[in-house]
Amino acid sequence: MSTLFLHFFHRPSFFQAVLPSSSSILRQQHHQLFYLYPTWLKSLDIHNHFNSISSISSIQKKTTSQKMFISSIAFSHLFIGMGCGVQAFANPLHHPRQHNLFGSQMMTNSRLWENPLDATGGGEAIVDLGSSRTSTNSRKTSSLLKDLTLDGSTTTNGSVGTVTTTTLEPPLSPPPLSHSPPSLESKSGTIILANDDEFIKSLPDKRSYRAITLPNQLTGLLVSDPTTDVEAASVHVRAGHFDDPPNRAGLAHFHEHMLFLGTEKYPKENEYEDYLGRNGGMSNAYTDMEDTNYYFNVSPLNHDAKGDDANSGGEGGGDDKAGNSSVENNSSGISSALSGALDRFAQFFISPLFDQSMLERELRAVNSEYLNGRTADNWRNFQLLKHGSSHEHPFSKFGCGNYNTLTDGGDAELPVEEGNLDFGGGTSPRDDLVTFWTEKYHAGNLRLCVVGRGSLDDLQRAVESTFGAVRPPPPNFVANGIIDKIKAGYLKLPMEGETHMRDDNGNFVFQTEHSTYSPAVAFGPNELGLLREVIPLVESRTLKIFSAVPPMDDPMLRGSRPFRVLSHLVGHESPGSLHHLLMEEGWINSLSSGTGISTTDFCLTNIAITLTPKGMKERDKVLAKTWQWFSLIKDSVMNDPHGVIEQYHDELKTMTELSFKFREMGDPTDFCSAAAGRMFDYEPSKVLLGSAEVGKYDVETARAFLERLTPQNSLVVISGPERELEESAEIEVSAHDAPWQVEERYGARYRQTRISEELAEAWNHPAEIDPRLRLPGLNEFIPEDLSLRCDDKDRISEFDPDVDYRKEHPKLLFDTPNHRMWHKMDRTFRVPRTSIKLQLTSPNIYHSPRTITLNRIFQKVLSDDLNSYVYDASVAGCNYSVDCVPSAYRISVSGYSEKIPHLLDVVTSRIASLIEEMKEGDDAHPGLAKLFHKAEENLLRQTKNYVYDSPYETGSYNLRMLCEAPVWHIDDYIGEMEGPDAEADPLTMKECAEVAEQCLFGRLNAVSLCIGNIDEKGSHEVEQVISNHFLKKRPLVDGEIPRFRSLRMPNMAEATKIFGSALELSEVPIVYEAVAHSEDEENNSVELMIQTASSYELGYEGLAIQELIGSIAYNSAFNQLRTKEQLGYIVSAFVKKFTGGGNAFCVLVQSSSTLPPQLEERCLKWMKQFREELEEMPDERFVMEAAAVKANLLEKDIKLSEEISSVWGEILSTVPHSEHFKNPVFDRIEKFADVLTLNAANANSGADLKRRVLQFYDGYFISTERRAVSSRVYNRKAKDVFDQHFGKAGVISSYADARKLKQHLASYPTAPYW
């Protein structure tokens, strides 16, 4: 898959953490990598029960602003269309002060990219993303939320000299900026750089825009959206860990943490997060190589001033306007929530405290963050890449930092006495924090973006009154951005009539290359032309080729963007491509190309290949074929008499323009974060357009760019198991003569050698090119018919712009015993895209470990096989997925409407023909046999890698194994693929096809949804395709529909009856203990779970109260257990939903310093403390919290994909239930909101809500009848403690123990609560 053309202008993260949400309403704050489920599960969905695995909460509804993965009440909603893909688990649990520690974007082979500035339904893969990260952790993201998203911002690493590039002497006579927009000055002195009519927008974009520069020279983008349910703001600072001083590695990252801990105006350390929480919002931040980004969102609430005063922290806390918690604008046109949030946010950049008393705690938080990363291959690989760069260049720095580097030599292991500030023998970083803030955090080095309901004039006044006090820049300051550098004359545009710039020798000039940190060059001759071998922690095999090229936003590259075409070709997957050839040989699992690292003065392109064990043995051939492919592309570019390359360019240009033309309005929070960063590099009127503006093909620029892709200018990195790297006697491409080394920060083991001149020559000029390699044909899936069905002459009714068509529910179009189809024609978003969703429910998939394993293998084979059929469709914005979950197969087809019928027919037809071919056996289809054995091999590897998951992931998995039924354990899956039983009765391709056939074409029930730009006639045609392919046998009877159960854990009395009098008296009767597998694992974890009741028993009322408690609890637990007690970096309190209707409240801590029994003790103590906090909390605070949760629940879908996710989730939630509950409750969220709607005329409404909350808490969490279980995981050093507990009554130490206990347990009712 090609991603090189995806230029991330805000250069966020090299590694995109793909994680699940961990809280019902996450109060988050900064990027805590919180995996709730094992990584093998994230990629396999092995235990994705009926519609999901243990969901995290009870009520599900998406919050567009938070982009979180939240939990789900109808837990089917969690895995809508996600199947076995890693996307199904995307969300880091952010918490205060955790961030994005990787400096550049990750390579990926995903075809669906979420661009905050490009919320399209298809074609994202050819437009500038603006950000590789979505803001995920919102504190107020209810479990009612229904959306699934990716997250992954992290921060980077550094440890060399300070680089100062902020104040530049401008030329005496800067050349005029030909494209500078005219400016207007307001009465306040604010300059208007661009008004709304000057912005280039997409058709669906109804927001109003204005770009301004305040008198203090702070540039901002204002966005007015009167319909938004989320108001947001972001500040992007052009300073990151490249700017760390030499003796304080990680200072930029640490500085970002400290800004959240109080300002002069609001000195209370949690004031900012508490305020946002009371207003349905969240905050987050990330630190990158050259950038730091801060952002927040709120619901447009107007709380009573009295209520806000009662809970404000610090001076000025009660400055909000009155509004009785209504979601309306106040008299000034700006909600009090946004007004107060902007005021608090602005203080970060006006008067932060950097309180000396908080330094030690936060230093330990950063150190814990660092320790968490030491056992992650992504962190290791990124730091190793940095370690291998020139140490004269700031890219080599250690950006995360740890206690030792931030204190200039301090030891975190030394005990700290109360009030002692000796920093472990090091020195205080406070002076350096102040210096860093003073030098970098001024108006000239910031860009601001605000989205709100108010008018542009109202927003401008709000920004002037809050950010107007930010310090102006020093004289002659020039920001490190394209716009400022052009204005100052440091970058020149080609003269009129010229297309290129050349030096005196006629060589192509890329002005930005090696300019920012000159004379330092990150990757020069000494750092390139190398072969590096790396031993990963988790079993994996990868081959990567990094090539040094100019920055992607260099003025010479911006017009024609040759890297898009080149990456498109390198990563192509159609027959004749490198990908297809290597897959056909059984050498690879995936191939992607794109931007590996992007900075302002260099870029590394990257082709990333995941190898099979066979491919690892044949890596010489894989590399040879790869360089042959490069050579073929180069020759085509250098000698292109028929203009084929230009045709590819024009295709991509057309798709980019289409994608931008129909770009829907995106999430306000993500939009703000991305747009603020873009303002450094784009003139205001083109901030929305970004790199979607593509000029004509420029063959000379393409040739100059391609000249960089040589072995001498590349770094080849091979990663794999040590035994396979050592078995290299016959491998030409090996560093076996070099000694093994260890990178000092994260401990990566590697060795490297220089690529010989002979080998480099053979790669660069291959003697022959494999005849199977050929350039792809032109794309036949580019749509031409972009008309809207809702505008057809025979439409149902005239479109009324004043009607909110989101309130119209899908219509039940077909209702037969084996198929129920819903249809809704889009009249809200008005884009030419259609989505078809289909679930085929079968009791045979999860019948046994063998059947689910065979079905998962079939899914992998199908995915590889279909790729050659539909790759062009995916590039053109039409996507498909076929996913296997324990109860069903899910088929999804979406994209531009014109091509969807053809794509559906291709996918469904190939499923049938593939099964028939596989049934004929290995000898008849050796190519398919290769795919089958590769799929089995990959599934086994991924499953076995589970043991390397973080302790808290393992602990959460063990809880689910205990609380749900039926479940197959990971060992059951492994036993089907390896070991004595597997050898005696191996899996075969023929058996795989027969099992898949039974599950896809046997007796089953189907539900489907046709939604978007499709009318009833089109839906009838879809129904015919479904019926003709899948529904040829009689339907399932009600008792055959697969159903999963949640088990009721025992209370103390019941546990005593089970285990006898030997059960130790404890607050937690059942303890599940395990030991981490990895010797390198330094962390312990505990997840304390207290069950409440089934969703049916709780009902709307109980689930809403439970949700409210989870919302309030997160900040309290984080503040106490993480901030004050410093137990560990990963801390959360959340509501959790189990398959089969069970609910629980969980407290989770992962710690490198404290053992699980002590962590459990602290969690129990916090729960008592939290009860006191609830008791002391004013009634008005409960009103605010309820209003915030309600506002989150009622957020409107802002693009078609969100509405699809919402309604499809409601449809799926009905599948496991009997005929009495077959109708989806499309207004389910509104019913939850009604529970939280308080009567403003009733003076006791807040008091009554408080009473209900306390009653719920006491009944389930404090009562002697409570049902508590603790899941503990020890690191290897603490195994002796585990051994001491082994065999004790009430202690479960294996899944065999768990199975024994489950025989004593009853199930919760499975009936739905609606």
TrEMBL record:
Transmembrane segments: none annotated. Residues 222-299 form the Peptidase M16 N-terminal domain. Residues 1111-1208 form the Coenzyme PQQ synthesis protein F-like C-terminal lobe domain. InterPro entries: Metalloenz_LuxS/M16, Pept_M16_N, Peptidase_M16, Peptidase_M16_C, Peptidase_M16_M, PqqF-like_C_4. The keyword Zinc applies. Residues 660-974 form the Peptidase M16 middle/third domain. GO terms for biological process: proteolysis. Residues 149-185, 305-331 are annotated as: Disordered. Residues 430-636 form the Peptidase M16 C-terminal domain. Signal peptide: none annotated. It comes from the Eukaryota. Residues 149-170 have a biased composition (Low complexity). Keywords: Hydrolase, Metal-binding, Metalloprotease, Protease, Zinc. Pfam families: Peptidase_M16, Peptidase_M16_C, Peptidase_M16_M, PqqF-like_C_4. This is Insulysin. It comes from Discostella pseudostelligera.
